[in-house]
TrEMBL record:
The lineage of its organism: Bacteria, Bacillati, Actinomycetota, Actinomycetes, Bifidobacteriales. InterPro entries: DUF3737, Pectin_lyas_fold, Pectin_lyase_fold/virulence. Coiled coil: none annotated. This is Hydrogenase.
Length: 127
């Protein structure tokens, strides 16, 4: 099955894309509370603004390019196969499992789950 695409929309609501699969989201504003993508897989964000306290958590296969993360304090919690690039500071990251995350600046980074292999986590400041 191919990838579905959402462009130039405002996406809101709790669990707005709960269990979504193979979805490309481009040039959108994404405002949500907790776990809007929970149990989703194969999600791509391009040139999006994402505002979510506990956003982008519990996702398998997430790609982000040229996105802005706003007020996101618990990003990427228990996410696997993530390749993310933010053009703005990421306020907080909690227990990612296999990620590459690039941003100009980071707030709090929590890695307190001893079961997670930290060699699978790459966090890079781009400035």
């Amino acid at each position: 099955m191919g990838t579905n695409t959402i462009t130039q929309q405002l996406l809101t609501g709790e669990r707005a894309l709960f269990q979504a699969q193979d979805l490309a989201i481009r040039d959108c504003v994404f405002e949500n509370g907790e776990s809007p993508l929970k149990e989703s897989r194969g999600i791509t964000f391009e040139n999006c603004t994402i505002e979510s306290l506990q956003g982008l958590c519990y996702v398998d296969g997430l790609t982000m390019r040229d996105c802005r993360l706003i007020n996101t304090t618990r990003a990427f919690e228990y996410c696997t196969d993530i390749d993310a690039q933010s053009t703005t500071r990421i306020d907080g990251i909690v227990n990612p499992t296999s990620v590459i995350i690039r941003a100009p600046q980071f707030g709090e980074i929590v890695q307190n789950d001893p079961a997670i292999d930290r060699s699978q986590i790459t966090i890079v400041e781009t400035e």
